[in-house]
Write a structure and sequence with these properties.
CATH architecture of the largest domain: Alpha-Beta Complex
Mean pLDDT: 91
Number of helices: 20
Shape: elongated
Number of strands: 17
CATH superfamily of the largest domain: 2-enoyl-CoA Hydratase, Chain A, domain 1
Strand content: 15-25%
Length: about 525
């Protein structure tokens, strides 16, 4: 056997050893928990045969606590590039079979390397997280490794899409990387995220809580809003990542992906003409409106279980990827509050960063009142949504379906926040407030005078008359159209066609913000 042949044989043996991660027993333990290994996850995610692994032979450099005797090729993370649907993407998958996927100096350097290359070539990064946290034996070097990753997350933000999937534990400082990325996925029952675990929580606060109660997928999907998507298992999680990936561009200089549209652009849905109830206080389902206007009724919702009074997600119009923001009258009458405002704001900012047009469907009666909201800074949270829309330079098409009152009218992509094309249905009411509230403010003195004279019925009739006057004047879209704040009043069943034509008009829109380091968004 020649020397060259021996060296090639050695290479093959080392590759085989690296692919085994922490060994057969560790892999069996991973499978017993209904979890896949890092390489199995990458193979599910990427196009078959497309994965190009990097740094397979990296080892840690730690000699503390006998660590020099525990060396594994690859050191707890699998990194490299591949394609999804033929489009380049960079990936890293933490390998729980090697030292519980704990983060070392060299493990961090591997992740940083793929992030750096992704930035150079303008390709997204997908991180599959499954780690016991910082490698304690490395001390400050592990912390420095986390910080190096976080800095790259920050520099990559708004330049390339960043997606995180939590497929096991993610605790302590490790949670900040997913939090800095654009979208986070969690797997129900097997993933969790928290800064401080159940042990310290009990020691410091006396609060007894399980990992699932503290930071499980359902908690972050419904209460905190930390995660954007949850999946029943890892296969579903990876399928959802691929679906999301189909809607977003490679980087901030590209336009959104387009697909062939098989849905007629002039398709009319007659039921939309009758979907708004006669009673202004009766709810209807905004999902039915969305299904009626987007291509093939397909809508990929983001954060479906958090702040349900606002709906956000991706759809297509004539094959073009678009972000949708819509009030949901079936939840809290569609009002805006702290959580729905920040949910909408972050989505608008993502779409603006990556050239994804936004279609806004408006039916908003106002902001949720009360001390709970005011004490939780609803002013600042509402201002985030206002700021996001006002800063955005992407094509913005707004359709007002029913109510659009007061400050909430302004916040939902009004004409003065540089809305490009603002349409309204004939059923829409665009005003400072509802007719009942307005009449009670404007004519309170006169009504009180009648009541003081004992003319209670006359006072009621007077207020009803004044309410009707206000309704006739403002409870329609024509007052706003009169001033050009609404570009056109459209027939509801024709909404799909009008949105598609609007997006076609705006395809080559050019708008830039004033030169500055960055704005100071209300946080």
């Amino acid at each position: 056997m020649s020397t060259q042949t021996e060296k090639i044989k050695e290479l093959m043996e080392l590759r085989a050893k690296a692919r085994m991660g922490g060994g057969e027993k560790a892999i069996e333990k991973q499978h017993e928990k209904n979890k896949f290994t890092a390489r199995e996850r990458i193979n599910m995610l990427l196009d078959e045969g497309s994965f190009e692994e990097m740094d397979m032979f990296v080892k840690h450099r730690c000699t503390n606590f006998g660590m020099e005797k525990k060396q594994y090729l690859g050191d707890g993370v699998v990194t490299g590039s591949g394609t999804i649907g033929g489009r380049l993407v960079y990936v890293f998958a933490q390998d729980f079979t090697v030292s519980a996927g704990s983060l070392s100096e060299m493990l961090a350097s591997k992740i940083c390397k793929v992030m750096d290359i992704a930035m150079k070539v303008g390709a997204p990064v997908i991180g599959l997280n499954d780690s016991g946290g910082a490698r304690l034996q490395e001390g400050i070097n592990a912390l420095a490794g986390y910080a190096e990753i976080f800095q790259r997350n920050i520099m990559s933000s708004g330049v390339i899409p960043q997606i995180s999937a939590i497929m096991g534990p993610c605790a302590g400082g490790a949670v900040y990387s997913p939090a800095l990325t654009d979208f986070t996925f969690m797997v129900e029952g097997s993933s969790y995220m928290f800064l401080t675990g159940p042990g310290p929580v009990k020691a410091v606060l006396g609060e007894v809580v399980t990992q699932e109660q503290l930071g499980g997928a359902s908690v972050h999907a419904t209460k905190s809003g930390v995660t954007h998507f949850t999946a029943k298992n890892e296969e579903e999680c990876i399928a959802m990542i691929k679906q999301l990936f189909s809607y977003i561009p490679q980087n901030n200089l590209e336009k959104t992906p387009r697909v062939t549209c098989t849905d007629p652009i002039d398709r009319m849905e007659d039921y939309l003409n009758d979907i708004i109830p006669d009673n202004p206080n009766t709810p209807y389902d905004m999902y039915q409106v969305i299904a009626g206007i987007v291509d093939n009724g397909e809508f990929f919702e983001v954060q479906p279980n958090f702040a349900k009074n606002i709906i956000i997600g991706f759809a297509r119009f004539n094959g073009q990827s678009v972000g949708i923001v819509a009030n949901q009258p079936k939840q809290l009458a569609g009002v805006l509050d702290c959580n729905s405002s920040r949910k909408g704001a972050r989505f608008v900012r993502f779409c603006d960063a990556f050239n994804i047009p936004i279609v806004t469907l408006v039916d908003v009666p106002g902001f949720l009142p009360g001390t709970g909201q005011e004490y939780n800074a609803v002013i600042l949270h509402g201002a985030k949504l206002l700021y996001a829309y006002g800063e955005a330079t992407i094509p913005k098409v707004t359709v007002t379906l029913r109510k659009s009152y007061g400050g909430s009218h302004i916040v939902m992509s009004c004409k003065q926040l540089r809305g490009d094309l603002n349409y309204a249905w004939p059923s829409s009411e665009i005003a400072v407030m509802g007719a009942s509230g307005a009449a009670s403010v404007l004519y309170a003195k006169e009504a009180k005078a009648l009541k003081d004279e004992g003319k209670v019925e006359e006072a009621k009739a007077y207020m009803a008359e004044k309410q009707k006057e206000y309704e006739d004047l403002f409870a329609n879209p024509y007052q706003a159209a009169k001033y050009g704040y609404i570009d056109d009043v459209i027939e509801p069943r024709n909404t799909r066609f009008r949105i598609i034509r609007a997006l076609a008009q705006l395809e080559n829109k050019k708008l830039t913000n004033p030169a500055k380091k960055h704005g100071n968004i209300p946080l």
